[in-house]
Design brief:
single chain; 6-stranded mixed sheet; two-stranded antiparallel sheet; 9% strand
């Protein structure tokens, strides 16, 4: 949860004209602090995605300024995200590889097509489809993305350059995992030193900074730049030159630095138009669907998470927010930018820095615009190894060992789904990996007694208890795949009609982990509306684990022995 313990005012801040003036100070300060985090991350995500470094800046600027006036999400930060790196670099590689202008332009066309689908997705109020995906499969997908990010950034962090392309080597995740010893053996010591120091800063500064008073306000990514840029200057990376260490010769040059404009306002020279002829190829539509589906899902999940962290418990209109993201993506891809989502890490920082309204997001974009437009030559001094270290840290957090422990505590079957999704993503791609997790979960449900007829259709009965309360009786099952129509009933009867609800699941054969979490989420929404939301019958189902969110299954009916002591003359009466 947020570090903000209580609401600083009884009034709920809103991103209106009056709110812009009233909360100007809080929003601009938060925007500045988020900008310090966003700048290096946008550059790093762009490079890792096979796009020019400035593409991520284009995305963050357009996303923050444009979506501020479209979405009603008050605290989310819009911009490029690590979770889309795998799709972006896959798309670029499929059309010719990183460094190819044609591949870059083809990826931009794919981004435009995916953005149009996102806009339609929101217009037709399909945002609720994000509720379909089982939580363990989503977490498995994110963990796999984290592993892939780490593997892809190791060559950047070590300064390993492919002599044929002049860029770090690529390949499939499992192939790159096998090459790690080779990358270490071929490392450029000077670049590796910058990468290692940057990585140590990312891992240890959150713990050390807490003890250093005002210095704790310096975000880890910005501290990395404050350390890595002087190191790059010390190694004189701006000029090509050799050096010798332990009998081996190595080369240093500005190819290890971020490629940025060399003059004020030079960023506008980097505007690139999509090549829409790429959309005539069938392979393009695979990437369109992946950008659309994974990007929309991540954005919806992030926006929902930020709503839970919001100190004022303001609620984002998910359909409206996905329209805003789609319009932002359309504009960003049209001028050379990466795809964007509602990004959770920067949004959390926005909350912790005291933001009040959506204008904090706008200010962070304005600071990015001023920085890249006015001081691009300074940004050119940033070593790529430093950006790679930030992304290695980000990937590690996505695939943190605690994720495995957390899933295991919820249930062994959840861990099986999590690991299956993770391994299938690493071995194939995101869509196949997520599909494998979903199929495994359905198989587990059927094995646990869920009738096939109730996998996608909830069997429910609605009863009115009094003028203000209704009862919903769930039959057969309450699982991730039938949750969307179940949720619509809950919202229509409860939130729309302003009635308190009692959900009785005692007659179900299974309530899965995804629904357990979503029922808790619905309880919070009802509480925000001043309504009560009670779930009955869980005690009559057997949990798969001790965790309160574990799936619950109907077990065998328990029998109880009753001993009656009576006179012998009453035996025949008792038997009757």
């Amino acid at each position: 949860m947020s570090d903000i313990k209580s609401k600083p005012t009884t009034e709920i801040p809103r991103g209106s004209a009056a709110g812009f003036v009233k909360y100007f100070k809080q929003d601009i300060i938060s925007g500045l602090l988020v900008f310090l985090i966003a700048l290096p991350l946008c550059l790093g995500i762009s490079v890792a995605s096979g796009y020019p470094p400035i593409a991520g800046i284009f995305t963050a600027i357009i996303g923050s300024i444009l979506t501020t006036f479209i979405s009603n999400s008050e605290l989310t930060i819009k911009g490029p995200a690590a979770g889309l790196i795998v799709i972006a670099i896959g798309c670029v590689n499929d059309f010719g590889g990183s460094g190819s202008v044609d591949a870059y332009k083809a990826a931009l066309a794919v981004g435009v097509a995916a953005a149009i689908l996102q806009i339609l997705f929101g217009v037709f109020r399909a945002g609720i489809l994000g509720e379909f995906f089982p939580i363990s499969a989503v977490h498995g997908m994110l963990a796999a993305i984290g592993v892939i990010i780490v593997l892809k950034q190791i060559p950047f962090a070590l300064g390993v350059i492919d002599p044929e392309t002049g860029r770090p080597p690529g390949g499939e995740p499992l192939e790159m995992f096998r090459q790690i010893p080779h990358f270490i053996a071929e490392a450029n010591p000077a670049i590796g030193a910058i990468g290692l120091v940057s990585l140590l800063v990312m891992f240890f500064w959150p713990f050390i900074g807490k003890r250093l008073g005002p210095l704790r306000l310096v975000p880890s990514p910005m501290l990395v730049l404050l350390v890595a840029v002087p190191l790059g200057m010390w190694f004189d990376l701006l000029h090509e030159h050799p050096y010798e260490l332990a009998g081996h010769k190595y080369q240093l040059s500005d190819q290890y630095l971020v490629n940025m404009p060399d003059r004020v306002f030079g960023m506008f020279d980097y505007i690139t138009l999509p090549n829409f002829t790429a959309l005539y190829e069938i392979r393009a539509w695979k990437w369109v669907m992946m950008f659309f589906m994974i990007g929309s899902l991540e954005s919806l999940l992030s926006a929902k998470a930020v709503d839970l962290l919001d100190p004022w418990k303001r609620k984002t209109g998910m359909d409206r927010d996905i329209i805003a993201v789609g319009i932002g993506n359309l504009c960003a891809s049209a001028v050379g930018g990466l795809p964007m989502i509602s990004e959770i890490v920067r949004s959390k920082a926005n909350i912790d820095n005291g933001a009040r309204t959506r204008f904090a997001d706008m200010w962070h974009g304005i600071f990015l615009l001023l920085c890249v437009a006015l001081i691009p030559t300074i940004l050119h001094r940033i070593p790529l190894a430093a950006l790679a270290a930030m992304l290695v840290y980000t990937g590690f957090r996505l695939a943190h060992p605690n994720e495995f422990i957390h899933v295991y505590r919820i249930g062994k079957e959840q861990l099986a789904i999590f690991i299956t999704t993770l391994m299938m993503v690493l071995a194939t791609d995101l869509l196949i990996g997520v599909a494998a997790g979903i199929i495994l979960k359905m198989v587990i449900h059927v094995a646990n007694g869920v009738p096939i007829k109730s996998l996608f259709k909830p069997f429910i009965e609605v009863q009115e208890i009094d003028e203000k309360t209704s009862l919903i009786l769930a039959r057969e099952s309450a699982v991730f795949s039938n949750w969307i129509p179940f949720k619509r009933q809950i919202e229509d009867i409860g939130l729309v009609q302003k009635r308190s609800l009692i959900i009785d699941v005692s007659d179900t054969k299974l309530v899965d982990h995804s629904v357990m979490e979503k029922l808790q989420e619905m309880a919070r929404q009802f509480e925000q509306e001043g309504l009560t939301f009670e779930v009955r019958g869980l005690d009559e189902l057997k949990p798969f684990a001790d965790d309160a969110r574990a799936a619950r299954k109907r077990g065998l009916t328990s029998l109880r022995r009753i001993t009656i002591i009576a006179d012998v003359s009453m035996e025949s009466w008792l038997r009757a």
